[in-house]
Design a protein that fits this description.
The protein is about 25% helix and about 25% strand. The chain has seven helices and 24 strands. Helix 1 (about 10-20) packs parallel to helix 6 (about 280-300).
Length: about 400
């Protein structure tokens, strides 16, 4: 078995396959990167509240009894069951899983694009400017096509908390989003809780608007006109870049069925952000990888009943204040039942919820990935089962 990619989906698949199929499979993981970066904590880095943990990828892979290949899959020849790498090598496979993620592109010209860990220093510079620059308007703009909006809300909340702790007044914070309600993909109850939290923190929200341009101290939005904006912060737009020979849509995302099988290709699977599932998030990637792992393990006669991908969305929202835990469940509709708790709703209570990968990484890091949140880095965990992929927008 060949796994292309060393991100959350690829590693969840590897750990899950080892747990289910044990030694029945010979596994190679092909990835050009030499390390695995636990990225969800990157949003806290500019505020000094966390860091993105790094793990040596070769060590992770080899400790699980697999072979690490420091290269990238460039093309697929499904008729011959061959994958060709950028370096020109040919790798034969019985099963190939594409978990090579996406590329990030600037979505809003003129805005500050938050790239994660790579942009931490620049964002700290923006915070310094806000601390000393006097009254101004900061707009956190969610562009169309962003597959995971939660980090933008975290940036807004943490920025407000950061400035408030330093006695900075006069900075007006607004979120501009094409959503009909804040974080609406979590369902109505969770969305209402987030809306109340934003209002409590004095963060305005402009919904049903598409940010299109930044110019002359304002953000142009459609159809609302414009918002005053001395600074605009945005997330990047994601695009797929699958190996040649792989079917994909106009944005480069690969169509799969609920077991992760790529449409039209025998023995080729895909999991994670590269697929055409609209929500691009680590927990979702891990669930897709689990569905693929179960299918493959069953083909190797492991005692596994392969279940299709049934997405459940869990989010850990950094808020900058006391922790408040919210869980929303769907029964016949979004957000019809929810509970609030001061206890963690999953374990380990990290940002990426993977059945196999999360506890594996927590053990390797001596649970450093999941410490109890300090007061200034409190969280609002949110969980809700998603509807069928065709109805998620």
């Amino acid at each position: 078995m060949v796994i292309a990619g060393g991100g959350v989906a690829g590693l969840e698949l590897l750990v899950g396959l080892r747990a289910m199929a044990e030694e029945r499979a010979l596994i190679e993981l092909v990835c050009p990167r030499r390390d695995f970066v636990y990225r969800p904590s990157a949003v806290a880095e500019p505020f000094g509240l966390g860091r993105a943990h790094r793990f040596d990828l070769a060590t992770l892979v080899e400790d699980l009894g697999a072979r690490f290949v420091p290269d990238a899959i460039a093309s697929v020849d499904p008729a011959r069951h061959l994958a060709r790498t950028r370096a020109g090598a040919e790798i034969a496979y019985d099963s190939l899983v594409l978990a090579c993620g996406t590329t990030s592109q600037q979505a809003l010209a003129g805005a500050f694009t938050f790239w994660g860990s790579a942009g931490s220093a620049e964002y700290r510079g923006l915070l310094g400017e806000l601390e000393t620059g006097g009254p101004c308007d900061v707009v956190f703009a969610l562009p169309a096509g962003a597959g995971w909006p939660l980090p933008l809300y975290e940036l807004a909340l943490l920025t407000r908390s950061h400035l408030g702790a330093r006695g900075v007044s006069g900075v007006r914070v607004t979120i501009a989003t094409h959503e009909s309600a804040p974080l609406e993909l979590f369902g109505s109850r969770a969305s209402e809780a987030v809306a109340e939290l934003l209002a409590e923190r004095g963060i305005a929200v402009c919904t049903d608007c598409y940010p299109v341009a930044v110019e002359d101290g304002r953000l142009e939005v459609v159809p609302a006109g414009h918002l005053p904006a001395d600074h605009v912060v945005s997330l990047p737009r994601l695009a797929g870049r699958p190996p040649a020979g792989t079917p994909c849509d106009s944005e480069g995302f690969v169509p799969v069925d609920r077991h992760g099988r790529v449409e039209g290709l025998d023995d080729v699977f895909a999991a994670g952000d590269l697929t055409n599932f609209p929500v691009k998030q680590g927990g979702i990637a891990a669930q897709q990888a689990d569905a693929v792992a179960e299918w493959l393990a069953a083909q190797l006669h492991a005692p596994v009943d392969p279940q299709p991908f049934r997405p459940v969305l869990r989010g850990l929202l950094l808020t900058g204040r006391e922790p408040a835990f919210l869980r929303a469940e769907v029964s016949g509709g979004r957000g019809e039942a929810s509970t609030a708790s001061t206890d963690a709703l999953w374990w380990p209570p990290g940002k990426v919820v993977g059945r196999y990968l999360a506890p594996h990484l927590a053990a390797l890091a001596n649970a450093e990935l999941t410490p109890p949140p300090p007061r200034e880095a409190a969280t609002l965990p949110i969980e809700v089962p998603l509807e069928e992929p065709s109805t998620v927008h």
